[in-house]
Amino acid sequence: MKLFAGTESSWSLRALLCMEIAGIPPELRIFDLSNEESRRELKHLSPTGRVPVLRDGDVVVYDSLSITEYLNESKPGLLYSAEAALRAEERSLCAELHSGFAEVRRQMPFVASGETAPVVLSAEAEAEIERIGIIFATGRGGFYRGETPGAVDAFYSVMAYRLASYGVHFTGQAGHYQNALTEWPLFRRSLSRLCPKKMSGGCCHRR
């Protein structure tokens, strides 16, 4: 499978993590989203002109949540739990992150280097962070469902890193889960793949 991804793209990072969890090493092509020529080329490969896009033969899947669902159909039980009730919970959490937390995204842009400026958050953003803390506190171990990673971890690891980069650190079980996600070796490797300049600072392009 081919994955078209973008530099500094939190959406691409989620898709890449899900592919790795599903045991499907992607043929990865990374587009520099800060480069106009690169963006023009992407428009010929992506139905929306955006990333991520998954190509599996003649099948084209775009949007990180749709990609996750497609991968789960290919490798059932790896991204979502086999038990229906748990699977429904996990899908709901992924959908909540995918479509929600708009103020956190707007006021705390994702920066792969983790080098951010202090921000004054609105009450709406603070409320969203409180909700994220509640979700993190329900984690069942180092990963959301215990000892093995899944789609929830792929989606929320990016949020955990985003919040930590702005100095938001939870306590208790929520903090344990946040720390586990930000230090997760697969997350760190995937982050570096999408933004190879991250370790030396000054990377790429905000998204």
Automatic annotation (TrEMBL):
Top-level taxon: Bacteria
GO molecular function annotation: glutathione transferase activity; maleylacetoacetate isomerase activity
Listed Gene3D superfamilies: 1.20.1050.10, Glutaredoxin
Keyword Amino-acid biosynthesis recorded: no
GST N-terminal domain boundaries: 1-79
PROSITE patterns documented for this protein: GST_NTER
A Pfam cross-reference name: GST_N_2
Keywords: Transferase
InterPro entries: Glutathione_S-Trfase_N, Thioredoxin-like_sf
The name this protein goes by in its record: Glutathione S-transferase
Organism: Tatumella ptyseos ATCC 33301
